[in-house]
Design goal:
It comes from hydrothermal vent metagenome. This is histidine kinase. Keywords: ATP-binding, Kinase, Membrane, Nucleotide-binding, Phosphoprotein, Transferase, Transmembrane, Transmembrane helix, Two-component regulatory system. The chain folds into 3 domains: about 140 residues, Beta-Lactamase; about 60 residues; about 140 residues, Histidine kinase-like ATPase, C-terminal domain (Heat Shock Protein 90, 2-Layer Sandwich). It has 9 helices and 14 strands. The strands form 4 sheets. The protein has a 5-stranded antiparallel β-sheet with strand order 4-3-7-6-5. Strands 9-11-12-14-13 form a 5-stranded mixed β-sheet. The longest helix is centred in the N-terminal third of the chain and has 50 residues. The chain is rod-shaped.
């Protein structure tokens, strides 16, 4: 069972059956007990009315009741019967309705003893009876013990219970079916956003749509946002790879043309050899840069959190060793628990290239400040600021350094591929890169990478 709708409907069906089954059984038992109590009370009422209607003579003889409490006592085979017997079994009086009946009436009950129960006649027909033992007033000359019995056919009770059960179970079945239909409609309406996601994903697979564009409820909005981020990341990676390959091909044209020209020359001029060496070095830098662009991971909705402080310590320790002769005075500001949600190599490239440029161009001082943006968020952003006391990049060339999409062979000379790589990685994460004058006198480069 792989369908969510089927699972929920089966679960709802089982719950509805159990609920209405227990409810129906409880109501059935309750009604049956009430119906049986009502019949007992009815028989008890007949008994008291019979007692009031019957008279005894001074000789202890029973006088025929002049007014019976229920007309059915006078109708043969009416379903309501009565009999009075002495405790020795002698029949004193039988209602007209029981004259031709073979009902086993009770007798022999002592004074004050009452008995409710069921009995059957010789044909197996069931009856409900009430018997009560009395004795005529002992001050009379002839006190005797009698048993009064009132009997009613159980068919009426069974018919009432059967009719109630038909109505009860029919109603419960109808209500249960209605609830299941309503549940199915609610499920269909409630799961519509998931079907919409499926339909949009099919359109994305077929190239009809670039991303999920529906207005989804809060419960699945995070899922759709993450899918859109993943799709955007995939599209950006493809675009970045295509751009990198195109730039690589374009950038290598000029160096290759010069190498071809020099290779066709027979000259052994040292200047020519230096030119060849320069072009080879330039091609090596171009290939390194384009490969780095192609392998940039970029923003991902599923990247794990990376602790920044250990990585920063490792990079700065290495740079302290490389530029030991400069005796750089380093100041760093980073709070505990600062994290980066992205690729570890991308973060190393950003911090490594910016810090390397700062160490390379500084006089004696470098400052590094790193903090999380909106740290209480699930995936906070990251701010990296590195400044030095060096000469800095001339203002007229800052815009060219920050320009995105510019090829490696068009970058500002003297700043290598470091700034280009950082700018491209920043772009892949949807961030910003800003170059300004720092408090130390040189450049201040600030990278802001947004959170999710």
């Amino acid at each position: 069972m792989t369908s969510i709708t089927s699972r929920l409907l089966w679960a709802a069906t089982i719950i509805v059956i159990l609920f209405f089954g227990i409810t129906g059984f409880t109501l059935d038992r309750f009604y049956q007990e009430n119906a049986e109590d009502a019949q007992r009370n009815r028989l008890l009422g007949y008994f008291y009315e019979m007692i009031n209607a019957i008279e005894f003579s001074q000789q202890g003889q029973l006088a025929q009741p002049r007014l019976l409490p229920e007309v059915r006592f006078a109708i043969p085979n009416s379903g309501l019967y009565a009999q009075i017997t002495l405790n020795d079994g002698q029949i004193i009086w039988t209602s007209d309705s029981a004259q031709e009946m073979s009902i086993p009436f009770k007798y022999g009950l002592s004074r004050g003893t009452q008995e409710f129960g069921t009995t059957k006649d010789t044909q197996g027909i069931e009856y409900i009876y009430y018997s009560f033992g009395i004795s005529w007033d002992e001050t009379t000359p002839i006190p005797k013990g009698y048993t009064f019995t009132v009997v009613e056919s159980a068919e009426t009770l069974h018919a009432e219970i059967a009719a109630f059960r038909r109505g009860l179970w029919g109603s419960l079945a109808g209500v249960a079916l209605l609830l299941l239909l309503v549940q199915a409609a609610i499920l269909r309406w409630g799961l519509q956003p998931l079907r919409q996601v499926t339909d949009e994903m099919k359109q994305i697979e077929s190239g009809e749509k670039p991303a999920l564009a529906g207005n989804y409820p809060l419960e699945i909005r995070r899922l759709t946002d993450d899918l859109n981020t993943l799709l955007h990341s995939h599209q950006e990676n493809l675009k970045r790879n295509r751009t990198a390959m195109g730039d690589l091909a374009h950038s290598l044209k000029t160096p290759l043309a010069l190498l071809r020209s020099n290779a066709e020359s027979d000259s052994t001029d040292p200047a020519l050899q230096q030119a060849v060496h320069n072009q080879v070095e330039r091609m090596s830098q171009i290939i390194e840069y384009q490969l780095q662009r192609a392998t940039t991971a970029g923003r991902s909705a599923f990247a794990a959190a990376i602790e920044v402080e250990p990585l920063l310590t490792k990079i700065l320790s290495s740079l302290d060793k490389v530029y030991r002769d400069k005796q750089v005075h380093l100041r760093r500001q980073i709070g505990p628990g600062v994290v980066f949600h992205g690729d570890r190599d991308d973060l190393m490239e950003i911090i490594g290239n910016l810090a390397d440029n700062a160490y390379k161009w500084c006089g004696k001082q470098v400052m590094v400040s790193i903090r999380n943006i909106n740290p209480e968020a699930t995936r906070p952003g990251l701010s990296i600021a590195i400044e030095d006391d060096g000469p800095g990049i001339p203002k007229e060339q800052v815009e060219q350094v920050l320009q995105r999409g510019i090829r490696m062979d068009e970058r500002v000379s003297g700043h290598g591929i470091g700034m280009a790589i950082v700018n491209d990685i920043c772009s892949a994460y949807g961030g910003t890169m800003k170059i300004s004058s720092g408090r130390l006198g040189g450049n201040r480069v600030e990278i802001v990478l947004p959170g999710a």
